[in-house]
Design goal:
Shape: elongated
Distance between the termini: 47 Å
Mean pLDDT: 78
Low-confidence stretches: 1-36
Number of strands: 3
Oligomer: single chain
Length: about 190
């Protein structure tokens, strides 16, 4: 009756599965934060490319990849830190503890490997190019909105917070109204 792989609720057999629902809404289910899924190995290439610029710690790398991909790719700590350990074990990078953080840099072997890839498209560019048009702009706008709302939350007075709450509620209703509209068909 209920397969754990179908992601359909056993009491609601007619409902769509999570993947189907997410795809119908453009959420990129299973792709981590809604962006295009990076190929296996991209984290490794990204780490080596970043460290060719300067030494960094893991969190810096995550933020730098997110920034360079314009928000289309934010690798998880669960992918960055094992990759750093693997590259260190391979002798391509070395880590040094400094001020409570482990900062990594390329070794000579790592620099040589990275120089051999200098002509390749950086992994964050490849991911960004695969993102649907408009998705990156939408994510950037949401990020800017969240920053503004946080500012009002921390620095605004009660009346300002109330005004922003009303504005956000109205905006949410309008966004759902857009989703309810029939998709525009290109007229040729």
């Amino acid at each position: 009756m209920y397969s754990k792989h179908s992601h359909r609720h056993p009491r609601h057999p007619g409902c769509r599965g999570r993947e189907e629902f997410a795809r119908s809404r453009g959420f990129g289910y299973g792709r981590g934060r809604g962006g295009p899924r990076a190929r296996r190995g991209d984290v490794r290439a990204a780490v080596l490319a970043l460290l060719a610029d300067r030494p960094m710690h893991g969190y810096e790398m995550i933020k730098e990849i997110e920034e360079r991909s314009e928000g289309a790719w934010t690798p998880s700590a669960g992918s960055i830190y094992p990759t750093l350990q693997m590259l260190e074990d391979e002798g391509l990078i070395r880590g040094e503890d400094s001020e409570g953080k482990r900062r990594f840099a390329l070794t000579e072997a790592g620099r040589a490997e990275q120089e051999g890839k200098a002509e390749e498209v950086p992994p964050w560019d490849a991911v960004r190019e695969g993102a649907p048009s408009g998705q990156i702009a939408l994510r950037n706008s949401v990020g800017k909105l969240i920053a503004a709302v946080r500012q009002v939350s921390h620095a605004g007075d009660e009346d300002q917070r109330k005004q922003v709450t009303e504005l956000l509620d109205e905006t949410r209703r309008k966004v759902y109204a857009i989703l309810a509209e029939e998709p525009q068909q290109d007229q040729e």
